[in-house]
Amino acid sequence: MNPLITLTGITRSYPSGEGRLQVLHGIDLSIAQGEFVAIIGASGSGKSTLMNILGCLDRPSEGSYLLDGREVSELESGDLAALRREFFGFVFQRYHLLSEMTALGNVEVPAVYRGVPAAARREKAAALLGRLGMGERLDHQPGKLSGGQQQRVSIARALVNDARVILADEPTGALDSRSGEEVLTILEELNAEGHTVIIVTHDPKVAARANRVIEIADGRIVSDQAKAEATRAPIPHSVASTGAPGLGRLSEALRMALLAMRAHKLRSFLTMLGIIIGIASVVSVVALGEGSRQQVLKNISGLGTNTLQIFPGQSFGDMRSGRVTTLVLEDGTQLARQTYVASVSPTVSSSQTLRYGATEASAQISGVGDRYFDVAGITLTDGRAFDATDVAGMSQDVVIDENTHQALFPDEDPLGKIFMAGKVPLRVIGVAAAQSRGPGGSTSLTVYAPYSTVQTRYLGSTSVSGLTLRVADDVDMSLAQQAVTDFLTQRHGSKDFFIINNDEIRSTITSTTQTMTILIAAIAVISLLVGGIGVMNIMLVSVTERIGEIGLRMAVGARRSDIRAQFLIEAVLVCLIGGVAGVLTALGFGQLFALVGSSFQPIYSSTSIAAAMLSSCSIGLVFGYLPAVNASRLDPVAALSA
Ligand code: ADP
Ligand code: MG
To answer: Which residue spans traverse the membrane (predicted)?
Structure first.
């Protein structure tokens, strides 16, 4: 019968200082199907090194290894992983169970990497555990099991893929003698069923249970004694069942990522925090920018398009002093005759003391045209505004604002009431809604009267505090502005006025808010990058921390791509959950903003939310890649012994 395993001239050396430390010196060995072999030797003699080479966890430095007639010493890592999956079952001294998973989950792991469908592998794992006396403890996590029970779980795991060869490195080393005895009995039974069992031990009593004892010292075989020749039927090796391997392994990677995150809740949350803050600020900033832009546009649209506002003086500073009287009503009348002008509405104002019964209050009398309320975007809560006839007839019908209403007629219907403003009686025909200008709104009182009334009754002059000029429809705004400037400069002999072009304000504000949004969003993107680097950092730490887990997964047959996928998925998941939390935070922030009662609301666009999710995924992919590759490049032996 052809031997199952044939080693010829196997050596293994490790780089050490200048030269190399040779651990195995030309091992020649052959093991037949169905043998129960114990490899015995002092600590440091090279038993584990030999075992790792036998189990295709490690490659020899020199020599040939024929496994079932196939040379495996030169195989690629992927092929070695396949052999570990299909051919070998490992039992370790320290069990190497995954602490986050149940006993059943641990037993299933090698079958997952082999692509066995979930139901089939669960059934098999449960049957094996039941057979090893663990049927009651399928859902226990390793931490809740005794050493002997954990070792049975690890034996079940070694069997789940119908391994032909069981490799056990000091399987009883960490167990009390009774549990150790039970484990040895199980191994004997497995051998009796046809499994080839190779056990490493330093204990001669354990070795005595085997049919053949190979002693090694300083990396050389010094004795090889067989008891009885055991010839057994080869165990039926089930065909590799590859149901939906890719999907199954992906969902396993996803499950592991979730388990790992659950096991380290605080750390996962802190890792996410960078992403949460980054995404929340990007989404909020974009929404606030859009909200403020639309609010500003709405405010300006109240002023109407095609509108120029002309004020006396050089700037608003001059105008407020109230002493600049260079702009007169006649300017408006003359401008209105120009072909490029559709209409002109003057504004004037005067400060007066209001009296109603015993109540007194000082107020600003604002003389405006009949279209002013539309143009300025002021809404009336009660009554009506004055019309063109009122303006022409210098009517004493006025609109008061809410502040004036409260000051003069608290808890009364003000419509039709007549009060004194200075020496002039005025009748209320309408109430204007309170205008919120900044926090708390304004506390000053304003009475809107026809400008003609204010000019004749109070000012006695024809100077105006401003002209609102509507440009004719087909005329270009900047040309019209230039024409108005030229016209007035000629009339006055100097440029003693200034013009505000609403369209200019609109475009200026739009581009300013856009610039601000881009600027703040850029800062937020930087914070996202910082968050991503945080994720990478934690993932690298996590790889180091879980090195034993990675080694175990490789030992039971995980491909490098499986390990890479697991860590990549974890990184993407952390970022994705962070992204969702970030978007929710941003939405919550919007609610808060509404409660505070700001003058505008953030506007969330689905595009920005989708972009946020997409970018958090990409951050996970980009910053998770390095840690994932690091994990997948680990050497299984080094990872296992770490
Ligand atoms: P045993 O299992 O018989 O106790 P090992 O096979 O674990 O012994 O180790 C044999 C020798 O090889 C020891 O001297 C150990 O220090 C050395 N050795 C094992 N692994 C490495 C490694 N990765 N790098 C360097 N030396 C190693
Ligand atoms: Mg050892």
So the answer is: 269-289, 518-544, 565-589, 609-626
The kind and range of the H/E element at 639 are helix 636-641
Distance from the alpha carbon of residue 169 to the mean position of ligand 2, in angstroms: 7
Which carries the bigger pLDDT value, residue 149 or residue 492? 149
Q: How confident is the model at residue 10 (pLDDT cuts 50, 70, 90)?
A: very high
Question: How far is Cα 525 from Cα 328, in angstroms, rounded to an integer?
Answer: 54
Q: Number of folded domains in the chain?
A: 3
Domain assignment of residue 123, yes or no: yes
Whose CA is closest to atom 1 on ligand 1?
44
Output 474 or 628, whichever has higher pLDDT.
628
Given a cut of 70, whether residue 317 has pLDDT beyond it is no
Mention every residue, 6+ apart, whose C-beta is less than 8 A from residue 121: 108, 111, 112, 160
Query: Which of 495, 521, 537 is the last residue in one of the domains?
Result: 495
List % helix, strand, coil for the chain (3-state, nearest 5). Answer: 50, 20, 30
Q: How far apart are CA 578 and CA 195, in angstroms?
A: 49
In a domain, residue 320? The reply is no
Band of pLDDT at residue 375, cut at 50, 70 and 90: low
Q: Is 545 inside any structural domain?
A: yes
Compute the distance from residue 44 Cα to the ligand 2 centre, in Å.
7
Position 245 confidence tier, pLDDT thresholds 50, 70, 90: low
Identify the domain containing residue 12 by its residue range: 5-242
* Whether 263 and 375 share a structural domain: no
pLDDT of residue 437: 46
Q: What is the model's pLDDT at position 438?
A: 40
Q: How far is the CA of 170 from the centre of ligand 2 (A)?
A: 7
pLDDT score, position 243: 47
Looking at the chain, the whole-number percentage of residues with pLDDT higher than 90 is 44
Neighbours of 310 (CB within 10 A): 23
Q: What is the pLDDT of residues 616-626, one digit of tens each?
A: 999 999 999 99
Close Cβ partners of 427 (under 8 Å, ≥ 6 residues apart): 396, 397, 398, 416, 417, 418
48 CA from centroid of ligand 1 (Å): 7
- β pairing state of 359-368 and 446-450: parallel
Residue 448, both tokens: 């809107």
Which atom, in ligand 1's list, is nearest to the CA of 200? 2
> Which listed ligand is nearest to 215 at the C-alpha?
1
- Asked whether residue 67 falls in the same domain as residue 183, the answer is yes
**Do residue 284 and residue 420 come from a single domain?**
no
CATH number of 161's domain? 3.40.50.300
E-assigned strand segments in 32-127: 36-40, 62-67, 70-71, 88-91
Q: Which of 466, 495, 524 is the last residue of a domain?
A: 495
Could you tell me the pTM of the whole model?
0.72
Binned at pLDDT 50, 70 and 90, residue 91 comes out as very high
SS3 577: helix
Pocket of ligand 1 (CB under 6 A): 14, 21, 23, 41, 43-49
Task: Outline where DSSP puts E strands in 295-340.
Answer: 307-312
The pLDDT score that the predictor gives to residue 314 is: 77
Comparing CA positions, the residue from 157, 152, 204, 155 lying closest to residue 42 is: 204
What confidence score (pLDDT) does residue 228 get? Answer: 65
Among 54, 48, 44, smallest CA distance to 10 is for 54
Ligand of minimum distance to the alpha carbon of 43: 1
* Cα 98 from Cα 108, distance rounded (Å): 11
Supply angle C-alpha 259, 262, 265, rounded to 5. 150
